[in-house]
Amino acid sequence: MRLESDGHLRLYDWANGSILYEVMQINDCDYPTVCGEYGICIESQCVCPYENSFFKPVDERQPNLGCTPLTPISCQEKQRHRLLTLSSIYYFDKNYTVVNAKSLAQCKKACLKNCSCRAVIFSYYHNDSYGECMWVTKVFSLQSMQPGDDDVYSSTAYLKVQIDKNKNNVMLGATLGGIGALLLLAIVVGFYLKRRKKYEEKDDFDFDQLPGMPTRFSFEKMIECTEGFIKKLGEGGFGMVFEGKLGEDTVAVKRLEGARQGNKEFLAEVETIGRIEHINLVRLIGFCAEKSERLLVYEYMSRGPLDRWIYYRHNNAPLDWCTRCRIILDIAKGLCYLHEECRQKLAHLDIKPQNILLDESFNAEVADFGLCKLIDRDQSKVVTMMRGTPGYLAPEWLTSRITEKVDVYSFGVVIMEIVSGRKNIDTSEPEENVQLIKLLREKATDNQMIDLVDKHSDDMVSHQDEVIKMMKLAIWCLQHDSIRRPSMSVVIKALEGAIIIETFDANSIMHVQDNPSRYSVTSQTTMLSGPR
């Protein structure tokens, strides 16, 4: 039995030195140095606070090594010291110095006066006018508190940083510029609201003015088409989908739930999909916009979404290996068109089995472009609100600086779901098997990936070598570093056997948990998609 430097107490087998088990089974985030100095541990993953603004990773490829301030703290320049707020943060050290300060203001003031203070943790139960001030002279790993950890107790960290001299001038200019921008914005918003009020008296939006639009239908026609919205096909992130008839053709009609909730998504779908045609992208036939009603009319896909066929919820027969491979290739071709063949790069941002639709012959088409983000060809990254579905989000969503490579990560997750015949996050499984990507990392490390193959299909087992190769492609797509992930055109070449799939250490993949609260540390806005 050995107490390791990382704080884990492990029991080893004397014969071959292998770990039998860890004696102390505690949360990974409870270890003092799990994320290094200044690192924040969020459900076993490490991030830097205020990354690129005040802190940077010691090594971007190894987040667990911790973070370092961009500007070192100097005691000779205390006038430039500031405290950064990190809400819902817990600190492991119980042998702290409790400063004689009962209010939050007193706590922060005491830390700014003393140069040896590198951070304070202020804890309170009801309000911050009376609490406990924790003095920290060396900042080890911080831990994010998750909802439900304590419904009454609150703990906030305040990290001391030093403002760069040049930043002071920039901040002053930015402040003055910001005030001017706010005044201008107030004028524009006032003018917009006045125009909108007058505009809404007639009709919410004049969609006919949009160039290259698909066919516009009246709401009366949509009621007739769906026979009063009686046959529900499914439920999307912003509304329900119904089966309908236009002449002899069957269509799928998506009815958005309220104009206020779905305007942005509606416009994105109409303007974007209306201009795009590809054999592996669901075709938008038309739309309806009358007062508060917003509807989209899509081509009908008779086999429905992919999740029906890989999770075995409808007692469907298992898909054979050839069909699964074709579906994976179809998804890749659809994404490749969006990323590389459109005038502007299009990041889908919500790739998951529910958004992959199948026709009668099990040909796959990518659907639901409501969250699409246009990326100019000369842009390497864009900053955007967090979007998508928990369980399929790439690690870079922690910074909100994303590229089309977030789709590649989600595609890797979908590959594993198709190959294994189970959900990425399945709470019906034993605790150690709930997360498919975490399980993939463990099985790949132990060279036991064959254990993940869908056991419902004998055909899958008979194609073991090809299945393992497909899982290696998934690992390539799931790389924590987005630069190391392949483009979708490279993925297609790998699927068609034109190039060899690169091999990576399974520890280089990282799974983002399905808990939106983890992102609260960076104060980002989240917009998570519901079931579709």
From TrEMBL:
It is a single-pass type I membrane protein. The chain crosses the membrane at residues 170-193. It is found in: Membrane. ATP binds at K254. Residues 227-499 form the Protein kinase domain. One of its GO terms (cellular component) is membrane. GO terms for molecular function: ATP binding; carbohydrate binding; protein serine/threonine kinase activity. Keywords: ATP-binding, Disulfide bond, Glycoprotein, Kinase, Lectin, Membrane, Nucleotide-binding, Phosphoprotein, Receptor, Serine/threonine-protein kinase, Signal, Transferase, Transmembrane, Transmembrane helix. This is non-specific serine/threonine protein kinase. It comes from Triticum aestivum.
